[in-house]
Design goal:
Layout (H helix, E strand, L loop, with lengths): L7 H5 L14 E2 L3 E7 L2 E6 L4 E2 L2 E2 L7 H16 L4 E2 L1 E6 L2 E5 L2 E2 L2 E8 L3 H7 L4 E2 L2 E2 L9 E7 L2 E2 L7 E2 L2 H6 L5 H24 L2 E13 L2 E5 L8 E5 L3 H7 L5 E2 L2 H9 L15 H19 L10 H13 L2
Parallel strand pairs: 6-17
Antiparallel strand pairs: 1-2, 2-3, 3-8, 4-5, 7-8, 9-16, 10-13, 10-14, 10-16, 11-12, 14-15, 16-17, 16-18, 18-19
Length: about 325
């Protein structure tokens, strides 16, 4: 479905909040509503909410939840020979049935390039990020010799905080044996993500993973290699742009952050969150679907949603599990 096929009904019928009768009130994340289904299962609904600078935008993006959920399902499937995943079933484009894991409160961030937060730290003159020593003489968006791991503590509210692996172990946040398994599997999952991206003419620049324990086993949870959790560059022209010091052409949420900054918003106190015009919401939809189609090689066909009956539909799905 191209942008011209997105009618006003799609723009008005976005999933912003769910409420399924007969189940405890869900945990509302920035994007997902998570329901406890019993029997160590979760019903995870990918909404159409979109966030940046730790703020949820006032307008949602049509079918974003379906794109995100479908791409995550594709990516989880591609790495389940490397690590256990929380996926049980994906019975609807917006819904994942998952194992209820004990989450590990660390965001496992892997970076292949000096981009984003890493580039900002580097520009400030610092040469250490999360305990990783960065070489002198690098330019923004340049690839590291090897991907690096730069963890962050998961904040309940506000910004996540950088932390070194040494501090994770010193503070006893994660047992050493479990952390070694997490780091080893994270690098392998990232390598697989890079291979898939490379075949499709993209560079997986950086990403975040979340892990939990299910029956004591390290398990990959949340989402994998989506536009919300990862940054991609187009491989074509990457070297030329790097040499000229030009911005890279990318598929990520960065363009939303750039738009917000142009409109005077960076999530700072006293700033007003701007409204997203419908034309821009359609552009965001197009970016998300482009990444889905590039990575999967499949056309994204949205499933129309009727919000008047969606909660009832969710109940019928959850009741099956």
């Amino acid at each position: 479905m191209n942008s011209s096929a997105l009618d006003s009904n799609a723009l008005q019928n976005c999933i912003t909040k769910t409420d399924v009768s007969g189940y405890p009130a869900p945990y509302h994340g920035k994007v997902r509503d998570v329901y406890e289904l019993g029997n160590d299962k979760l019903g995870i609904v990918a909404s159409d909410r979109i966030s940046a600078f730790d703020h949820i935008m006032k307008q949602a993006i049509p079918y974003k939840g379906q794109v995100l959920n479908s791409l995550a399902a594709f990516a989880f499937d591609k790495v389940d020979d490397i690590v256990d995943t929380h996926i049980i079933d994906v019975p609807h484009p917006n819904v994942t049935i998952a194992k209820k894991c004990d989450p590990i409160p660390i965001e496992v961030v892997i970076r292949a390039c000096l981009t984003g937060h890493a580039a900002r730290v580097y520009k400030s003159g610092k040469r250490t990020l999360c305990g990783v020593v960065l070489p002198d003489g690098m330019v923004e968006n340049e690839k590291f010799d090897e991907p690096i791991l730069t963890p962050a503590t998961k904040a309940e509210e506000g910004h996540d905080e950088d932390i070194s692996e040494k501090e994770i172990l010193h503070q006893g946040i994660v047992d050493e044996d479990i952390w070694q398994e997490i780091r080893e599997k994270a690098f392998k999952v990232f390598e697989r993500g890079q291979q898939i991206a490379n075949k499709q003419g993209l560079i997986l620049v950086d990403t975040k993973y979340e892990f939990g324990l299910y029956n004591g086993e390290v398990t990959l949870i949340d989402e994998v290699h989506t536009a919300d959790s990862s940054r991609y560059f187009y491989a074509d022209g990457y070297e030329e742009r790097l040499e000229k010091g030009e911005p890279q052409k990318q598929l990520s949420k960065e363009f939303l952050r750039e738009w917000l900054m142009e409109h005077g918003f960076q999530g700072k106190e006293g700033q007003t969150l701007p409204d997203l015009p419908n034309e821009f919401r359609i552009k965001i939809y197009n970016r998300y679907t482009e990444l889905y189609e590039k990575l999967t090689g499949q056309t994204f066909t949205p499933t129309p949603i009727n919000m008047n009956s969606f909660n009832k539909e969710l109940k019928e799905i959850f009741d099956r599990y």
